[in-house]
Design brief:
This protein is α+β, with helices and mostly antiparallel strands and 138 residues long. It is built from 2 helices and 7 strands. The protein starts with 10 loop residues before the first helix and ends in a 10-residue tail after the last helix. The C terminus is likely disordered.
Length: 138
């Protein structure tokens, strides 16, 4: 996959991500998609869509709103994620700190491309050495 700028994310999702994780502005967007999952972020009408992105060697979940959800973890942690073909959701393993990640409602081909990219990132980081400071942001 080719890199694209952070502008490939919708403006409200990009603003929420940069407010909580400003270092994301320097990372290339390797993969981004809007999932079918919608979560409560304090909007008056309805729930916010959940966006997923691979930024450099990190994976981010972003849901814009008055109380935005922004979670960033090393993309190598996606290697333990499992796609459930019955529900159409990508389920994540428990994270060591913070609340659990919500499942992502993704098309099977999008989920497959995300998991393949996470494996590529895992091989790249094993070759280059893991970055220090990888953490989870709530």
């Amino acid at each position: 996959m080719t890199s694209c700028p952070l502008e490939s994310l919708p403006r409200d999702a990009r603003d929420a991500l940069l407010a909580r994780a400003p270092y994301a502005a320097d990372l290339p967007v390797r993969w981004a998609a809007r999932s079918a999952t919608r979560i409560d972020t304090g909007r008056w009408f309805g729930r916010a869509p959940l966006f997923a992105a691979v930024l450099g060697d990190r994976f981010a979940l972003v849901a814009p709103g008055p109380r935005p959800l922004v979670r960033v973890i090393p993309a190598t942690a996606l290697g333990r994620a499992v796609y459930n073909h019955v529900t159409g959701e990508l389920a994540f393993p428990p994270v060591p700190s913070g609340p659990p990640f919500p499942s992502l409602g993704l098309d099977p081909l999008l989920a497959r491309s995300l998991l393949e990219l996470s494996r590529n990132v895992e091989h790249e980081s094993a070759r280059d050495g893991a970055r220090k400071g990888d953490s989870v942001h709530a």
